[in-house]
Amino acid sequence: MKATLALLLLTPWLSTPGQELRPWTEYRVFLWMGEKGQKALKDPAMPERLRELGVNSGMTGPGGDASFYRDNGFGHYVENIINEGLCLKFRSKVTNWDAFVKGWSETRDRESLVRDYSLEDPAWLQKMSERMRKTARDAAAGAPLLYDLRDELSTTISANPFDYDFSPVSLAAFREWLKGRYGSLEKLNQQWETRFPSWEEVTPFTTDQIKQRMASGKPEAAMKTDWAEVRAVKLDLAKAKSERTRWNFAPWADHRSYMDQALARALDHFRQASHEADPATPVGIEGTQMPHAFGGYDLWRLSQVLDWVEPYDICNSREIFGSFMPGKPILATVFEKETNAAMRRLWHLLLEGDKGAIVWWSEDVIDFTQPGLPLTAKGRALAPVFKSLATPLAKLFLQAERERDPLFIHYSQPSIQVAWLLESAADGKTWLRRFSSYESDHNRHAVVRNAWLKALQDLGFSPLFLSGEQLEAGLPTSARLLVLPQSWAMSDAEREAARAFSRRENRVVVADGPHGLFDEHGTLRPEFSWPAGEAPESVRLTFGTNPGDKVFEERSDSLSGYPVKRLKAEMDVTELEAVLRLLEERGVRPPVKVPAGARVRVHRYKAGDKARLLAFERNVEYKIREELAQVGGNEQLEKPVSFKAKIQQPGHVVNLRTGEKLGKVTEFEVRLDPWQPALFAVLAEEPSGDVVTELLK
User: Fold this and answer.
1) Per-residue pLDDT tens for 185-204?
2) At residue 225, does pLDDT exceed 90?
3) How far is residue 434's CA from residue 430's CA, in Å, rounded to a whole number?
4) How far apart are CA 613 and CA 470, in angstroms?
5) Which of 583-586's residues contact partners 24+ apart within 8 Å by CB, and which partners?
6) Alpha-carbon Rg for the chain in angstroms
7) What distance separates the 2 farthest-apart alpha carbons in the chain?
8) Can you give the CATH number for the domain in which 612 is found?
9) Which of 371, 402, 433 is a domain's end point?
10) Does position 11 have pLDDT exceeding 90, yes or no?
């Protein structure tokens, strides 16, 4: 039976019920106000200057005066309401993180593992919750667009590795959390391979201790680590089954999972406090980091406790949040200084579903030293970008219903933890200097995840990320593909869901690298096996044919090298065509087909019942560094390209930028500028008037 690709609109299956929040009806450009900007609000030239810049919203701190924005027709948000405890860059003993870890690397004392603010401290939670309530009560009458709990928050700093939190209050809460997971001390000791005589003595392994277990193969939590042994340790899949203790990471991984959840619980606590006082205003955070074993950056957990987010797009963070937070406001930080770069990225993000942007910062875009407050060169460069995002054309795409494909990429926080331990073994004693700024460029697990995302996008698909919890609940009936990108650690329920999916007709599971060898605690499974002679970097394809038939398996090479290959001038499309062939043989075809080597991103939307909208852009590699600079490497995609786009059903195609009517066709030419997307409408009937105006009615 020939199968067809079902379209997947963003549905409640991919989100959780939220508050009745204030509707978000337009694209918002916020200007982050520095001290000079705040003072200049009294200058009569300021309202006109903001309009000239294309800004329609500003900011205050908690308790700040929003009258300027209200009186002049601007929106605003309230920023950095909870400073103590959520961000250790300020008001903590570790504000100079580099100096702190340098000193700790010599002593490695356990006293320093106590976080200045425990995320489970009842007194801190109560104090910060009351601050949140008061801020919301005071601000609610002014109808702020957003409440921001904190910018660049972390359990450490950024996503830098460190063994927080060994405070008494945190350890007590951790033990209660473990009781909920294991039920009995006997089961915990069995899982951890420990011999704690009582719950009161249960203590997680530090990173040093778990690395010593990796090196020695002994269950004990050694107090001193042989770093030469650690640097030499490597996971040999052929031998791993005979030395399972060496690869039992549960005493460390459970603590990492607990800290992720402790941060998420605290954020949810503050969000609920805010909604008690002001149920209409969304509550979220700014400046999030890459998915990581440290810092609290389990993006699935965070997505479930936030009404909005402004992510730093590091290692697919924006795409992951977009999958997990459909319909919720997602914003971007604007750091660009040039028109083209800003135009490309902000339109890209609008097409992804972004609802606005936060411009960093007032001092960069307005010259406060000159009479009349003229725009700076950066301000003049950005103004046309912001104004383009306020046009009817932009509004049409902002309001349209986005279509995604039922192709899923597994997001697994336990696998991120396992991968970090395995990859950082070579660092030896200096693992704590594996800062997230380094990790974003060198994390091999993230590379595999990105490879499959980019490959599917280059083929014209719009895939989604799928969390472990979502996989456990079962894939939707429309799902056609499940990618397991180095999904080292999977629960029994995840593995069974993947197996059941692979047995369904014309469904495919692609495992790029080892998958499910560890359980969700980071413990190597007793039934673990790996075929002799098979490389860890191989890809295993599992698929069913007809119900009741056997499940077939094939092997091929990892796609991990694809992100580098696709950015070269002459691209080898062999790997990409193999992926497309795998899908097409099972009836999975992109609704809009583009040439495999064009490296073009296709976005699809429904504009009510009137039309479908299509957007094409160069599929560049978006990744920023922590200092808010775009990573390079996209030079070969910064050139115009022309190609033929094919749609499955004939329709009246209109170029929305030029107004050109291309007739009723199934194929049309796209001339793509590298700095802004090409935008089209496909209508059932031939249009008579202005298409954008008609579709916005």
Assistant:
1) 999 999 999 999 999 999 99
2) no
3) 7
4) 29
5) 583/459, 583/480, 583/481, 583/508, 586/3, 586/480, 586/506, 586/507, 586/508, 586/543
6) 26
7) 80
8) 2.60.40.1180
9) 402
10) no
Residue 511, domain member (yes or no): yes
First-to-last alpha carbon distance for the chain, in angstroms, is: 42
388: nearest Cα among 619, 636, 656, 620: 656
Q: How many CB atoms lie within 10 A of CB 391?
A: 11
Query: What's the token pair of residue 688?
Result: 């008579």
Query: CA of 332: how far to CAs of 57, 329, 357, in Å?
Result: 14, 10, 5
Q: What is the CATH number of the domain that holds 131?
A: 3.20.20.80
Local structure of 661: helix, strand or coil? strand
Residue 466 has which token pair? Answer: 């799928």
Assigned token pair, 223: 């107090």
Number of Cα atoms under 13 Å in the Cβ half of residue 185: 11
């970090």: which residue's tokens?
420
The backbone torsions φ and ψ at residue 298, rounded to the nearest 5 degrees and listed phi first, read: -90, 100
Residue 625 dihedral angles phi and psi, to the nearest 5°:
-90, 165
Rounded CA gap, 612 and 467, in Å? 29
The structure's pTM equals: 0.95
Residue 380's domain comprises 19-160+256-402
Given the structure tokens 């009137």, which residue do they identify?
610
> Alpha carbon 439 to chain centroid distance?
15
Q: What is the pLDDT of residues 550-598, one digit of tens each?
A: 455 666 788 999 999 999 999 999 999 999 998 998 899 999 999 999 9
Q: Are residues 560 and 613 in the same domain?
A: no
Q: What does the pLDDT look like over 12-40, one tens digit per residue?
A: 333 344 458 999 999 999 999 999 999 99
- Give me the long-range contacts of 603-607 (CB less than 8 A, separation at least 24): 603/351, 603/352, 603/402, 603/462, 603/677, 604/7, 604/402, 604/403, 604/462, 605/397, 605/400, 605/401, 605/402, 605/403, 606/9, 606/400, 606/401, 606/403, 607/396, 607/399, 607/400, 607/401, 607/681, 607/695
User: Are residues 138 and 263 both part of a single domain?
Assistant: yes
Closest-CA residue to 597 (of 622, 575, 614): 575
184 vs 241, which has greater pLDDT? 184
Number of Cβ within 10 Å of residue 230's Cβ equals 22
